[in-house]
Amino acid sequence: MKTDRELKELVKQKYSEIALQDKATNASSCCGAGECSTEVYNIMSDDYTSLEGYHSDADLGLGCGLPTQFAQIKPGNTVIDLGSGAGNDCFVARAATGVMGKVIGIDFTPAMIDKARANAEKSGFNNVEFRQGDIEQMPVTANIADVVVSNCVLNLVPNKNGVFKEIYRVLKPGGHFSISDVVLLGNLPDALRKDAEMYAGCVSGAIQKDVYLELIKVNGFKNITIQKEKPIIIPNDILLNYLTPQEIVAFKNGTTGIFSITVFAQKPVTDSGCCAPGSGCC
Predict the structure, then answer these.
(1) Does residue 280 belong to any structural domain of this protein?
(2) DSSP 74
């Protein structure tokens, strides 16, 4: 089994390659993991083109939802986008927060940061910035964000609990997040879960839906709400790379499901006299 460090390096390598691919290539694969499907349609991503602030050069077709559409961003807000890629969600968030607000994109991959900065520069967006960093240790101070968004990123991170702790830290009291991610019902076949390419492609790194929601709860968030949920159907020509035809039939007829969910949750205005979750002082 790969270590957390090895998985992170795998993701960094794959997303450095993805940064150089066009949207059509990314959209017809599994979160851009490779040209593995002959079917031309988006396996996971939703259509951003009708949203204000949409930037075609920043849309790599890598998402699994529209978190900024559900994020309740208000004018003047400070928004942090985790795994900001080429900047698409940041630019949509900027349209909502306005020139008096601020948007910070954080991404692990230097090639993505370079692409996002170039897109912001071309558009003259002075209140959008991109910082390279690990979302388990965000390069921002505590209690700075009104809203955190993320699109199909936490499932790539081995230590999801650590990310939720960081989201709690950087949100202002009363702030909230809206995150789109991939989760599971039931267990994936071993061949899917073990394959490194599928990990970088968002599926094998996903965890059970109930475990995902419990991580949010134990880290102190309130008002946890699923804003949108949709099944993700992996085409047979991708599954054939990992499963026999008989195994594909059993997989599709079984109880296992792969879903995109968009989840909202809020950091309490007060901690009811207790320290932040994970601090060990309560």
Answers:
(1) no
(2) -
